[in-house]
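Colleagues,

For the teaching module next term, I've prepared a clean inverse folding example: a structure given as tokens, and then the sequence designed for it. I'd like students to try predicting residues themselves before seeing the answer, so please don't circulate the second half yet.
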């Protein structure tokens, strides 16, 4: 029986590295990519910026305070997506079994592939080199007997890391590490474990599942298995998105329905575009509204039949849901999500009114936006929409 080997590949400081690659003047400088308003958050910080204590999910306000001379850049998502796609293509040469986790990381099942190399780590070396040659970007890789260990390994020697965890060494390697390294152990569980005296993974392994149960309940078995380096999760190869959505936190609260409706148009445009890129449509549409008071509500509706990816339908549904928000406070955040997705094959399925011209226009816009960027046509298109409504 072939030995199971899982490889995890994770790009180092992905968005920031892309910006440094595209503009060599930024190399060696602290680069912070994220929402640039005071209310934004850091998406990625370059390693130079991390030395100032900046990390992802930190508020942009705090990042600016920690590093006033940093280079602060907006997120160029469609650009990163394109590069992510390039990387995915490279990885597909190393294994057909790939589970993408995010734009910048993926699991590969490389079991049996090591027979083509003198050593299993040569696969990671080759993939890292390929990625660098093609994209100019650096990846870290981890190889281990399962997903948990592969992901842990890729993180151990970042940046430009390559760590292999051979069979039989799992427990010794894990023992001194903090319990926070266990997959699925977040802040709350970590604190609970620490309070109960479990500080390292070794503490858990030597205590056994029964001692864990009072602390973590029915997670005890899973956490104990992980502490021994056991993880049976399969790769989710044909992982489809469960939902497609976008949300925006606004620099200034939205005060009037007209302002909110304008933002709903933009959200509908973005979500519709992403659905079409993935040949998806969905039946359930959910609107999220966060008021200035930070109170957050969601409203959804579900269509009969196959659902939609059409911008107008999404916009009108979003507006209907917005009218059900139940209060007239200023709005801080709007989010639009489409779920209950299914893939469509034929262009003709796209629009229920069978309007072929409209489908062709949409297709043309997608092509142009792919070539010239998302904003190339959006304004005109949105204008056309509002114009149509007035008729
Ligand atoms: Mg990464």
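(Answer key — instructors only)
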């Amino acid at each position: 029986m072939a030995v199971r080997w899982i490889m995890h590949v994770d790009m180092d400081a992905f968005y920031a590295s892309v910006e440094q690659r595209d503009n060599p003047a930024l190399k060696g400088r602290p680069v912070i990519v994220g929402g640039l308003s005071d209310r934004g958050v850091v998406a990625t910080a370059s390693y130079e910026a991390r030395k100032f204590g900046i990390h992802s999910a930190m508020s942009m306000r705090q990042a600016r305070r920690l590093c006033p001379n940093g280079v602060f850049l907006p997120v160029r998502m469609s650009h990163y997506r394109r590069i992510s796609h390039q990387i995915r293509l490279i990885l597909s040469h190393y294994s057909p079994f790939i589970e993408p986790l995010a734009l910048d990381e993926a699991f590969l099942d490389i079991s049996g592939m090591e027979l083509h190399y003198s050593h299993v780590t040569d696969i990671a070396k080759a993939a890292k080199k390929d990625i660098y040659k093609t994209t100019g970007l650096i990846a870290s890789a981890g190889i281990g007997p399962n997903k948990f260990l592969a992901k842990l390994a890729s993180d151990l020697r970042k940046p430009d890391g390559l760590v292999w965890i051979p069979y039989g060494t799992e427990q010794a390697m894990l023992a001194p590490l903090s319990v926070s390294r266990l997959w699925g152990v977040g802040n709350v569980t970590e604190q609970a474990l620490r309070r109960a005296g479990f500080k390292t993974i070794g503490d858990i392994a030597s205590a056994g599942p029964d001692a864990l149960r009072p602390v973590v309940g029915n997670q005890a078995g899973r956490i104990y298995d992980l502490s021994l380096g056991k993880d049976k999760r399969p790769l989710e190869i044909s992982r489809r998105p469960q939902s497609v959505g976008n949300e925006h936190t606004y620099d200034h609260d939205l005060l009037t329905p007209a302002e909110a409706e304008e933002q709903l148009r933009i959200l509908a445009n973005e979500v519709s575009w992403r659905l079409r890129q993935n040949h998806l449509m969905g039946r359930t549409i959910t609107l999220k509204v966060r008021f200035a008071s930070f109170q957050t509500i969601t409203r959804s509706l579900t269509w009969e039949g196959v659902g939609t990816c059409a911008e107008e339908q999404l916009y009108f549904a979003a507006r209907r849901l917005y009218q059900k928000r139940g209060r007239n406070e200023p709005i801080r955040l709007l989010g639009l999500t489409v779920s209950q997705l299914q893939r469509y094959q034929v262009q003709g399925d796209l629009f229920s009114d069978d309007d072929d011209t409209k489908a062709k226009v949409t297709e043309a816009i997608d092509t142009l936006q792919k070539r010239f960027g998302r904003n190339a046509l959006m304004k005109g298109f949105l204008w056309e929409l509002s114009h149509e409504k007035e008729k």
